[in-house]
Amino acid sequence: MNIRRTSVAVLAAIPLALSACGTPQAGAPEPKAPTTEQVQWAGKMCGLVTGFSQKQKQLPPVDKTNTQTVKDSISARLDAASGAADETVNGLKGLGPAPINGADEVNQSFQQGFGEVRDVLKQARAVAGQIDVRDKQKFNEGVAALQNQLKKSNQIDLAGKFGKLEQTPELKRAAERAPECKPFFQQKPQQQQPAPPQQPPADKPG
C-alpha cells in the first residue's frame, strides 16, 4: 500500500489551482508592491503548507515482512503524517495577524483544510489499529477498510481553499515574491488515484 501517496493525494491539485495566478485581468488596477513584511509573512504561510508535503516524503517505509510488520509500519506512518498536519495547523495559528488585507481569512481557510486532513489521518490510524493480523482474510478486510478511510481525503477541497489566495490581490502579489511560495505557481501532473494495497505473502503470518 502506498500510504504516502494515498494520504496526501489531495495536495496534488494545489499547484494546478494556482497555476494561472500570475496572469492579471485586463483593465484591473495594478496592486501596489508588497512590503518586505508582507512578503515574509506570505512566505512563512507557504512554508508551513509546503513543509507538510515535504514531511510526507520522509515518512518511514512500510515493512512488508509479514502482516504484523505491515500493520505496525503503516500505523507509524499515519502517526507521523497526522502529526505533521497538526503541526501545520498550529503553525498557521501561530502566524498572528496578517499585515495583508484579506490574508487572515485565507489563513483560517488553510487551518480548516489541514485540520480536515489531520482528522482523516487520525481516523485512518484508528482503523489501522483494528486490523487483525492473525487471519489473512480479516487482515485483507482491515486493509480495505483503511484504504476506504484514506480515500476520504479526496473529499477535502484544499484546491478551493487555495483559490482564496488567488482572490486576494495583495496576498497573491506578496506570495509571488516569496521563495517559499514558488511551488504554488508551478504546473504539476494531474492528481493520481491512490494505489491499491499490496499484501504481504500469505505464508508469512504475523
Automatic annotation (TrEMBL):
The keyword Signal applies. Residues 1-28 form the signal peptide. This is Small secreted protein. Residues 194-206 have a biased composition (Pro residues). Residues 166-206 are annotated as: Disordered. Residues 182-193 have a biased composition (Low complexity). Keywords: Signal. Residues 166-180 have a biased composition (Basic and acidic residues). PROSITE patterns: PROKAR_LIPOPROTEIN. It comes from the Bacteria.
